[in-house]
Predict the structure.
Amino acid sequence: MKESLRVSVFGTLAVALTLVTGNASAEGVTVDGRPFHLHVPTGYANRPVPLVILLHGYSVNSTTQDKYFGLGERADGTYLADDRTFLYAYPDGTRDPTGNQFWRASNACCQFFGGLPPIDDVTYIAHIIEEVSRSHAVDPTRIYLVGHSNGAFMSHRVACDNPKIAAIVSLAGHVPQAGAGVIQACAANNVSVLQIHGDADQISPYSKIHQHDVALPWPPWPGATDSSGRSSDYTAVRPPPPAGPVLRVSFPSVFPTAMDTVQSWASRDGCRSPLANYGEIDIDRTLPGSETTRARFGGCPTGIDVELWTIKNGPHIPNLDQHTFGDTIYTWLYAHPKRPGPAPFAAGVISPTPPATLPAVLPPPAPLKGGK
């Protein structure tokens, strides 16, 4: 069936996607009481192959995100995972009081509401890796994460906390924060990072930090609070649709910029030279020409890359070509297996100060509406 999905918040797709109700080649697997999809490639033959885990954006689900990135079934019924022979897992986040699915990547994103205990998604994703590795032959040097928006935040977070991750691709995400605007620094673990970001992104800002006003379809209840315990600040912004009121909520959290994100990884990975452009590529189907500039840090350890691909005039949700985007990012991932690290990994380590190239504290957010 065809459904047009309309933009609302982090990661909701602004393109018409063809959704499928079933996938006979995908296995339903449950870990920690939470199911996820696992596609086993046709050429698997019980030999070690890469594992790719896709993490959806806030308010999206795994199958919709899969269609957007083009990592799963194509329009012609073929699968990228079959063509390139990799195990492919795509799980779902937890539902919040609005009914939207989220990943708790940091205090800033994206468990926005109270009523649930803090969700430990780092452990959940670690258990997915363990379960797939137990039941299938996974190449331990090629475990990869791919995410969009909230899922990209989560990809950065897991890469910080799980030493098994070889490389990540982040579309419109940021490195996690330790709180109060301080960037979380993780132990050296030699992760290759591809950050893809539109410079016109108004939800996960590319180059500036601002307060976010996000429209959420949520019928509030008396005494509702957000995840920090404050009384929620809600005002109606347009007449309610048949499904219920659409409200606007102000989130006072701030995010690092795209440059801060890649700079922090370059510092952790030991890259010694600044970003340098090395070519253009066409990612967005609606923007003219090869609108995306590719840049990478120099002087990184052998086999490690930290790159920033900037989509000129690109929004939070680029109009990706589902026939080529998945193959492009998988090709990049496959070129970056896990390399031995210069120092032992310590999970959960947060440096008392961020890398020297980053501000210790990001600018404070603007006051909430109504002076709250």
Q: What stands out?
A: DSSP finds six helices and 19 strands in the chain. The two ends are 45 Å apart (CA to CA). Confidence is low (pLDDT under 50) at residues 1-25, 210-253, 343-372. The longest strand covers residues 138-148.
